[in-house]
Amino acid sequence: MMDQKGHLDRHIRNMKKVYHKKRNHLIKALTRHFPQVNILGSKAGMHLVAEFPGLAFTDELLADIHQAGVFVESVEHYALQKGRHQHQIVLGFGGLSEEEIDKGIAVIKKAVDHKR
């Protein structure tokens, strides 16, 4: 039984390192394309909330991003008080490679630039 626990503990430590690295990569990709972005929330998990001052993620913009193969969700979708969170999106990164993260952020940037 101790051996299994040792393996599980080691696996959890390794996965924390993997997700921490992916999270940092996502933040770097975001700030490279969107220097004004703010990252909200704790440094744990497999997703983060990014806030884009002055940019509204409308249903139309989100649809364009989704059609390009990138699935993000507006925090507005989850908010109890509507109309206050259109400038924030949830970005998951757990199942993505660094290359996929880079491509996804480039898709978001292209969609945003196209709408401006």
From TrEMBL:
InterPro entries: HTH_trans_reg/aminotransferase, PyrdxlP-dep_Trfase, PyrdxlP-dep_Trfase_major. It comes from the Bacteria. This is Aminotransferase class I/classII domain-containing protein. It comes from Laceyella sacchari (Thermoactinomyces thalpophilus).
